[in-house]
């Protein structure tokens, strides 16, 4: 009965209202299902409202009439703080639920205020970034808050998180290109309405950027790459400032087959830089606004070195010095004419001797201090750690692979977050064209960089302030290498193999020659002192153990394998002699030589030097150091001395 009475009252009030209002209002407001719930003319209002103002509360909208104009407010997007708050709140609640639970007024409706957070759509009319845009999604206190979608008439749209009326959190934004039927797609993190943090942008021209943003522009570390089938394919990995390449970065010109590693300013090469070519040629020069200036160092395919001025097509110009692989030098003034080729006026010095200066020459270390190379990667990580790795900071740093907070408390997983971004460094710099033996020292520095260790210590909750050097070994790779090295190992290992290629070639030839001996003859040839050890298929377990050296990347694990090999040799000796026997060095070296020969490990020199360079300094002088030195002695013996022994061929023939 109450429901019917109230419905009839509302219908009469609404009909009378339409009759009293002019056509200007009724043409817009008059909708069949709309009912008037309250008219401000029937209530006492605050004097500040003014006599000419009139407020109409309908079942779906709130209308404010001021003279000959009016404004309407969707009840689903209305939060109330007014004289008639209770009645209006009930109307809002009913509008949200879509139900007319009569009676509207009375005790039954008290205490049931509408929710603070709601879901609805709205088109913005006022000036601002959202003018003309339609928002559909979650609201809180009259502002977009939560998940939602913004769509502009010009085709722009944003889908993602909002906070206090602005894009905030993760979101995807599509922006149409004016002259093309294509879009720029931004998948990134937003902060107070602007792109900030890690993101991926897929541009309409098929370029892709993966990296950091700040205030809607590329800022910090990022990778920009276009399609492989583009007219001029390229890839840039490095630092950005105000949407331009700036600072240390690596540029791959895939069309020319060149890689530039060096400094940038305002999108141009500016400062010291290295250029690497597919042919193996590389040079170090200084650039000014994308042009080479001053003398440089050029390393040619045959290991000749030229120091002086030269053009981009490697033509010698002006004063310079050319050092040949055999040690001869030519110093003077160089010029090139199309009809006569390269000409020079200078002095040829033939007194020099052949050495490995060109082979071992390293580039980039002095001009690119390791702590300055990848600052854009370290700074976001430090911000993430200092913030506690919580909430939106966690997502903005890690990209889209968010782990639980419990997992993030573990030090290795914290550092894994950093590795997620820094794993592109070795591939960017030292793979492909960058697999050049003259960059080995640069790669070593980046692996052992104490800045990474400081980060790891901070992740473990240990302070990096003064005094840390006294309490912790900043050169100790035990903390960082197991986490960092797997990212670098393929490229780093290749650089070691290239750097020690000649020594390893000699070693491999020695292994081939020694493998012609049967076991007993080889043990005799190596002058094993205990003749009772000379038996077929001796030390098979030790040989199989040593072969595992190439199955791991961690220097500590490689040293463990070396120690287990030594233990297997001792076990075999004790078993054959049927007594405990401690091997002196005179007995160990020939037996280890036998095991090394039978293991036939390729690139053993590269493995030994990698272990030595990255070994924890605390192991120096200990058992690990002793065993590694013994392995080095075997390696050197096989590659050098084996060819000098006169008994070699005689024993082999016998």
Automatic annotation (TrEMBL):
InterPro entries associated with the record: Alsin, MORN, VPS9, VPS9_dom_sf
Asked whether the UniProt record includes Manganese among its keywords, one would answer no
UniProt xrefs under PROSITE patterns? VPS9 (PS51205)
Protein keywords = Repeat
On whether Repeat is a keyword of this UniProt record, the answer is yes
One Gene Ontology term of the biological-process aspect is: endosomal transport
Name the Gene Ontology molecular function terms of this record. guanyl-nucleotide exchange factor activity; small GTPase binding
Q: Which residues form the VPS9 domain?
A: 510-647
GO cellular-component terms in the record? cytoplasmic vesicle
List the protein's name: ALS2 C-terminal like
| Origin species | Podarcis muralis (Wall lizard)
């Amino acid at each position: 009965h109450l429901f019917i009475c109230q419905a009839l009252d509302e219908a009469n009030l609404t009909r009378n209202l339409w009759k009293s209002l002019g056509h200007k209002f009724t043409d817009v407001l008059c909708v069949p299902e709309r009912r008037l719930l309250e008219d401000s003319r029937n209530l006492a209002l605050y004097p500040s409202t003014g006599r000419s103002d009139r407020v109409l509360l309908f079942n779906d909208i709130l209308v404010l009439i001021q003279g000959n104009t009016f404004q309407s407010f969707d009840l689903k997007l209305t939060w109330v703080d007014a004289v008639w708050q209770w009645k209006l709140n009930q109307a809002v609640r009913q509008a949200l639920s879509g139900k007319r639970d009569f009676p509207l007024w009375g005790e039954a409706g008290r205490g049931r205020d509408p929710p603070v957070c709601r879901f609805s759509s709205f088109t913005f009319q006022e000036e601002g970034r959202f003018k003309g845009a339609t928002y559909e999604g979650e609201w809180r206190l009259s502002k977009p808050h939560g998940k939602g979608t913004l769509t502009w008439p010009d085709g722009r749209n944003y889908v993602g998180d909002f906070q206090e009326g602005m894009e905030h959190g993760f979101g995807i934004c599509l922006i149409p290109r004016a002259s093309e039927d294509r879009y720029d797609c931004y998948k990134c993190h937003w902060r107070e309405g602007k792109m900030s943090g890690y993101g991926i942008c897929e541009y309409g021209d098929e370029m892709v950027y993966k990296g950091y943003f700040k205030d809607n522009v590329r800022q910090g570390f990022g990778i920009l790459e276009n399609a492989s089938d583009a007219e001029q394919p390229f890839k840039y990995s490095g630092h950005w400032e105000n949407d331009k390449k700036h600072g240390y970065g690596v540029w791959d010109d895939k069309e020319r087959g060149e890689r530039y590693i060096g400094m940038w300013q305002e999108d141009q090469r500016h400062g010291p830089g290295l250029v690497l070519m597919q042919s193996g040629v590389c040079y170090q020069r200084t650039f000014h606004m994308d042009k080479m200036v001053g003398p440089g160092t050029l390393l040619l395919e045959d290991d000749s070195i030229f120091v002086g001025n030269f053009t981009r097509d490697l033509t010698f110009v002006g004063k310079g010095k050319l050092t040949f692989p055999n040690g001869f030098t030519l110093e003077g003034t160089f010029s090139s004419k199309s009809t006569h080729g390269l000409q020079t006026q200078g002095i040829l010095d033939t007194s020099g001797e052949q050495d490995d200066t060109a082979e071992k020459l390293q580039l980039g270390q002095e001009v690119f201090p390791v702590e300055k190379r990848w600052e854009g990667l370290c700074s976001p990580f430090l911000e993430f750690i200092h913030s506690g790795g919580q909430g939106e900071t966690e997502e903005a740093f890690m990209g889209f692979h968010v782990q639980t907070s419990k997992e993030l408390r573990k030090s290795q997983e914290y550092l894994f977050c950093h590795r997620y971004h820094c794993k592109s460094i070795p591939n960017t710099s030292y793979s492909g064209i960058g697999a050049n033996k003259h960059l080995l020292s640069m790669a070593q520095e980046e692996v052992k960089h104490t800045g990474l260790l400081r980060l790891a210590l901070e992740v473990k909750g240990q302070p990096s302030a003064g005094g840390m050097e006294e309490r912790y070994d900043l050169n100790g790779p035990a903390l960082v290498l197991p986490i960092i090295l797997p990212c670098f190992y393929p490229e780093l290992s290749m650089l070691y193999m290239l750097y020690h290629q000649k020594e390893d070639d000699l070693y491999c030839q020695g292994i081939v020659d020694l493998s012609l001996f049967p076991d007993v003859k080889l043990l005799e040839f190596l002058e094993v002192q205990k003749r009772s050890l000379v038996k077929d298929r001796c030390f098979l377990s030790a040989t199989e153990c040593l072969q595992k050296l190439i199955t791991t990347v961690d220097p500590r694990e490689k040293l463990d394998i070396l120690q287990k090999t030594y233990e297997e040799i001792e076990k075999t000796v004790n078993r054959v002699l049927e007594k405990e026997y401690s091997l002196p060095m005179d007995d160990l070296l020939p037996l280890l030589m036998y095991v090394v020969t039978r293991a036939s490990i390729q690139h053993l020199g590269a493995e030994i030097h990698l272990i030595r360079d990255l070994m924890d300094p605390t192991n120096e002088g200990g058992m690990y150091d002793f065993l590694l030195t013994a392995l080095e002695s075997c390696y050197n013996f096989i590659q050098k001395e084996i060819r000098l022994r006169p008994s070699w061929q005689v024993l082999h023939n016998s």
